[in-house]
């Protein structure tokens, strides 16, 4: 009797647990207003990533550097080529402003976020995710114009099946 009860209830519970238990650490891209997973990139041991895009006014690349710290995302650096609308003109607080070979850097940044909201560019932005020395064009995985929330998440097998895995 115990074996039949286990087979009837235990096995389905174990399968459900394995299917829905969040275990894989990822950079998650979710619909900002719904929380539904759109795409994800599995994280290795490396905790740093970058968002690279083309600025819509001065048409040069901007590189934002981040690091995961627990469930928080810390911005650590900003690199850009032109002072224009939307770009900082100096560092704040403990940050350091540098210019090297025509590139402007704000280093030693320590700005924390629970998540980053981003509207994927439709025309010029060409948003890219840089992780572990590989660059992924986000429009290859997420429809341009989509408003996404970037966060550090642990996801289950079920969520992996529903989202689009970002890979090379």
Brief rundown of the structure:
The protein has 168 residues and is mainly β.
Your description of this structure?
With about 170 residues, the protein is mainly beta. The chain has one domain (about 25-165). Helices cover about 15% and strands about 45% of the residues. The protein has 2 helices and 13 strands; from the N terminus they run αββββββββββββαβ. Strands 3, 4, 5, 6, 7, 8, 10 and 11 form an 8-stranded antiparallel β-sheet that branches. Strand 6 (about 95-100) and strand 7 (about 105) form a beta hairpin. The radius of gyration is 20 Å and the shape is elongated. The mean pLDDT is about 90.
SSE layout and pairings?
Blueprint: H1 2-20, E1 24-31, E2 37-42, E3 48-54, E4 61-69, E5 72-80, E6 96-100, E7 103-107, E8 111-113, E9 116-119, E10 128-131, E11 134-137, E12 147-155, H2 157-162, E13 164-165
Parallel strand pairs: 2-13
Antiparallel strand pairs: 1-2, 1-12, 3-4, 3-10, 4-5, 5-7, 5-8, 6-7, 9-12, 10-11
């Amino acid at each position: 009797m115990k074996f039949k009860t286990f087979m009837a209830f235990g096995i389905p519970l174990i399968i459900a647990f394995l299917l829905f238990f969040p275990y894989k650490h990822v950079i998650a891209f979710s619909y900002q207003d719904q929380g539904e997973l759109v795409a994800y990139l599995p994280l290795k041991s490396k905790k740093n990533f970058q968002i690279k895009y083309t600025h819509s006014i001065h048409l040069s690349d901007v590189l934002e550097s981040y690091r995961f710290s627990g469930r928080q995302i810390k911005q650590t650096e900003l690199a850009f080529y032109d002072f224009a609308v939307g770009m900082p003109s100096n560092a704040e607080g403990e940050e350091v402003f540098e210019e090297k070979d025509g590139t402007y850097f704000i280093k030693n940044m320590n700005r924390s976020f629970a998540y980053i909201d981003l509207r994927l560019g439709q025309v010029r932005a060409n948003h890219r995710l840089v992780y572990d020395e590989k660059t992924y064009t986000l429009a290859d995985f997420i429809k341009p114009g989509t408003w996404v929330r970037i966060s550090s998440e642990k996801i289950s097998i079920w969520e992996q099946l529903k989202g689009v895995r970002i890979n090379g």
